[in-house]
UniProtKB/TrEMBL annotation:
GO terms for molecular function: DNA binding; DNA-binding transcription factor activity. It comes from the Bacteria. This is MarR family transcriptional regulator. Transmembrane segments: none annotated. The keyword Cell division does not apply. Residues 1-137 form the HTH marR-type domain. Keywords: DNA-binding, Transcription, Transcription regulation.
Length: 146
């Protein structure tokens, strides 16, 4: 196992670099930052989050969260409101204008991944999926130990 750690670590780094390039390319085509796209993808799953929930999920500093939310607010994609049951909590919600953009984002994201993965054979895709599930699980366990 020790002999495989270094090549696995290098492959993970290379995959991360390539994923970052893909995310930059994708986000720039919508005039957004990759982090703004991640926020909008989260809000597509669940339409409201507290700032604390966003901070916990995305592992970003409060200052970075504020910067991104301000940018999305300036673009009229999200709004921030006080929780009526607890005035200390700020709730982030999608604005109506964001709906079509998110649908477009999701469609383009699927198309991009289809283009990237179109040459992968079905049996290879199954191996990739299984391996990625293992990697995500291993990294989640590591993150939760911290």
């Amino acid at each position: 196992m020790a002999d495989n750690i270094e090549p696995v670590a290098e492959l993970i780094c290379e995959l991360t670099r390539n994923c970052n390039i893909k995310e930059e390319y994708f986000a720039s085509s919508f005039n957004l930052s990759p982090t703004e796209v991640r926020f909008l993808k989260l809000l597509a799953i669940k339409p409201t989050y507290s700032i604390k929930e966003l901070r916990d999920i995305l592992k970003l500093t409060p200052g970075r969260i504020t910067h991104i939310l301000t940018s999305l607010e300036d673009k009229k994609l999200i709004s921030r409101t006080l929780d009526p049951t607890d005035k200390r909590v700020t709730i982030v919600s999608l604005m109506p204008k964001a709906g079509p953009l998110i649908s477009n984002l999701q469609q383009n994201y699927r198309e991009l991944h289809n283009r990237i993965l179109k040459s992968v054979k079905e049996e290879e895709m199954e191996k990739i999926l299984s391996s990625l599930e293992i990697l995500v699980d291993v990294f989640k366990k590591w993150v939760n130990q911290k």
